[in-house]
Design goal:
The protein folds into two domains: 1-30; 32-154, no CATH class. The chain is 59% helix and 0% strand. It has helices at 2-28, 35-43, 51-57, 77-91, 102-117, 124-127, 137-154. Helix 2 (35-43) packs across helix 3 (51-57) and helix 5 runs antiparallel to helix 7. The chain is elongated. The structure holds heme C.
């Protein structure tokens, strides 16, 4: 009888834990790549063409909407990735795009162009764990074209040179 009670409590306990973790899972899956994060990026000022690319390959590190894959909990790997995400976001938070000054945007777009030309982003140590984050050459070209177009918009060619 006592043994049965104990088993029952164990079941209740297990159910409570399961409930707790599923709840936590729902909270922490917010910010995973997908339609809702793509929509957040569009709202942040990116075109519907580039937003899905940024969502897929950049937003895990360059946005406040990053997700937490299971391997993030492994020692060593979690350290490396957490560091990448932290530094990446501090450097450029895509969800802040509208708030960045014209000068900062020019800086970001210029470095984006060069990072894409040299296949530096996303970092290799990242896409090895996340093969779907690797940019296809087509996506890389679309993103680069977008950056070049933005730069043209921000730096009108017909502006008179500053006289000194
Ligand atoms: C694994 C996380 C991660 C991903 C994914 C990632 N970045 Fe980065 N990115 C970083 C880190 C870390 C830095 C270095 C920041 C610093 O200098 O402190 C960086 C730097 C940059 C720079 C600055 C130039 C340079 O080469 O240092 C640009 C531009 C950039 N990222 C754009 C992108 C774009 C565009 C994507 C998607 C195609 C992307 N990043 C994906 C982490 C990431």
């Amino acid at each position: 009888m006592k043994e049965m009670m104990r088993t029952r409590w164990r079941i209740v306990w297990a159910a409570a834990m399961l409930f707790l973790f599923t709840g936590a899972g729902l909270v922490f899956t917010f910010g995973t790549r997908g339609p809702s994060r793509t929509a957040a990026l569009i709202a942040s000022g990116f075109s519907p063409k580039v937003a899905p690319i940024l969502d897929q390959s950049c937003a895990d590190c360059h946005s406040s909407l990053s997700h937490r894959p299971w391997y993030r909990n492994l020692p060593v790997i979690s350290g490396v990735i957490a560091d990448d995400e932290g530094r990446g976001k501090r450097f450029l938070d895509l969800t802040m795009w509208k708030q960045y000054s014209r000068g900062r945007k020019i800086g970001f777009l210029t470095s984006m162009e060069s990072a894409l030309d040299h296949s530096e982003m996303p970092p290799q140590r990242y896409w090895i764990l996340h093969p779907d984050a690797k940019l296809s050459s087509q996506d890389s070209a679309s993103l680069r074209q977008w950056a070049v177009d933005q730069l043209h918009g921000l730096r009108p060619v017909n502006r008179r040179p500053v006289s000194n």
